[in-house]
Design brief:
globular; Pyruvate-ferredoxin Oxidoreductase, domain 3; 5-stranded mixed β-sheet; single chain; alpha/beta
Amino acid sequence: MAGGPQGSGVDTASTIFGRACGYGGLYVFGRREYHSNIKGLHSYFHQRISKTETLANISDVDLLAAFDAETVVRHLMLSRCKSSHKHFGTRVFFDG
């Protein structure tokens, strides 16, 4: 998953990552979410990458590219509250 303020490169970074995975022979299922077209508001792109065919997205986060602190709080910390055993192996890349 990649998230951050609109205009910070979230869509571009996710598209490049998804295409690279697809070119590498993996299956990709993506879901782009943005709540407004106003530059600076939060948006995110969630992708599910798998060696087998992927038919649906899930909310688990194994790799998080955060362009701001809000992304870490919104997508990593809040999802940890929902699941007591998940996300301990989540890799976070933060550029904020």
